[in-house]
Amino acid sequence: MSASGGTKAIVAALSANLAIAVSKFVAFLFSGSSSMLAESVHSLADSGNQALLLVGGKKAQREATPQHPFGYGRERYIYAFLVSIVLFSVGGMFALYEGYEKIKHPHELEHWYWPVGVLVFAIIAEGFSFRTAIKESNTLRGRQSWKEFVRRAKAPELPVVLLEDLGALVGLVLALGGVGLALLTGNGVWDGIGTLCIGVLLILIALVLAAETKSLLLGESAGLEDVRKIEAATVDGDTVTRIIHMRTLHLGPEELLVAAKIAVRRDETATGIAVAIDAAEARIREAVPIARVIYLEPDIYSDAEAAKGADREATPGGPATGHH
Asked: How far apart are the C-alpha atoms of 195 and 285, rounded to whole Å?
């Protein structure tokens, strides 16, 4: 996995979650708090999720084969999607079940100092993990807002870790609130309500992750900035006069496919066109290094043909816009 895959952030989150999961489960055993049990399962699910992201990153590095000629870059998207399923089923649904049971059969908390102490420790550890994820993300985020970064990031690991850590911190505050109210009132129902809130939070985060990774799995185009760079690099103003239409597709976070129909001069020779295409490919790769697979089809530009729009069969997804 490349540095942009956020390996450092994943390892930091994995280390924090394993330590927190053990401490939360110990606190549950001593106190009987359902919030602590839900939180321990949450941390265990998060640990499994980070392991899945690391496995996905490793599998994505495999070389292309005849059966998979474009490589295995999308393995990272598949494993990120699995993370959302685990978070929804193991984390969210379990917390909802535990919260319901606790509200239905409440009991007082024992040894209250265990859950409170562990929750404070967990908040500190998750804060460290969240800080690492923010620091790693800032190197890629640029001027994008956090919402835009999560929605547009092509590498799924950092948005997944960011949302997991944010959810974990909010969940810990909810658990602390539930335990605190249960202690103050002597009513264990508050512990169950805190657990239900954790379950709802985890399910909402899982749905956001599922929506974003589904979009990546379906295949996303290059970002607007990269598209502009590719367009500028393709046209040399001499042999290649314009782009008739173009399609881009992420084969993986750091692998981009570029396919374009380009207009060449009517009197250009086949040799001249071949040289111009090779030069255009070199310029594209220099401008956008992740453009690994490039297909350029030469054609003669026609105002009459351009007015008809792009051929739907030749360019799946409908007519291109802004490239005539």
From this structure: 51
Locus of tokens 């380009």: 262
Of 160 and 259, more confident = 259
Express each pLDDT in 214-223 by its tens digit: 888 888 889 8
With beta carbons less than 8 A apart as the criterion, state whether 48 and 57 touch.
no
* φ, ψ for residue 229, nearest 5 deg: -65, -40
At residue 315's C-alpha, the angle toward residues 236 and 300, to 5°, is 40
User: How far is 47 from 10, CA to CA, in rounded Å?
Assistant: 9
Contact 241, 272 (CB under 8 A): no
The two structure tokens encoding residue 123: 């908040």
Q: For the chain, what is the HEC assignment?
A: CCHHHCHHHHHHHHHHHHHHHHHHHHHHHHHCCHHHHHHHHHHHHHHHHHHHHHHHHHHCCCCCCCCCCCCCCCHHHHHHHHHHHHHHHHHHHHHHHHHHHHHHCCCCCCCCHHHHHHHHHHHHHHHHHHHHHHHHHHHHHCCCCHHHHHHHCCCCHHHHHHHHHHHHHHHHHHHHHHHHHHHHHCCCHHHHHHHHHHHHHHHHHHHHHHHHHHHHHHCCCCCHHHHHHHHHHHCCCCCEEEEEEEEEEEEECCEEEEEEEEEECCCCCHHHHHHHHHHHHHHHHHHCCCEEEEEEEEECCCHHHHHHCCCCCCCCCCCCCCCC
pLDDT at 317 over 50: no
Rounded mean pLDDT, 125-153: 83
Burial of 199 (0-12, 13-18, 19+ CB in 10 A): buried
**Residue 290 to residue 279: CA distance in whole angstroms:** 17
